[in-house]
Amino acid sequence: MDCIFCKIANGDIPSKKVYEDEMILAFHDISPMAPVHVLVIPKVHIENVDAVTEENSKYISHIFEKIPAIAKVAGAENGYRVITNCGENGCQSVMHLHFHILGGVKLPEKMA
Ligand code: AMP
Ligand code: ZN
Q: Using a 6 Å cutoff on CB, does residue 4 contact ligand 1?
């Protein structure tokens, strides 16, 4: 499968890693939209929120267990925003589930 985030998870494409364990990887977004912009992905291919199931939801809970420490080590002080885009109207551009952690600045109140 030609999935850029599977390749990053496998180490076939380099990334600036923030955190890694056996289930998930966190790395700096290549085109940051805030001083802190980290992406957190499951190492298995899950397309997006629509593809979450009882079988794979352990990856999502694990991601959320780790997000506070990932945000802290990435330098997001005083809070941050967690976003996941899903499908066409959600403007998802990479079809491998990822959570954006945005912070390091007071973010705009409006999200859309
Ligand atoms: P989305 O629009 O939610 O699908 O977000 C995809 C994100 O992946 C964008 O913020 C891109 O800047 C980011 N991205 C794409 N390719 C890479 C890459 N090779 N390394 C790091 N981030 C990437
Ligand atoms: Zn993938």
A: yes
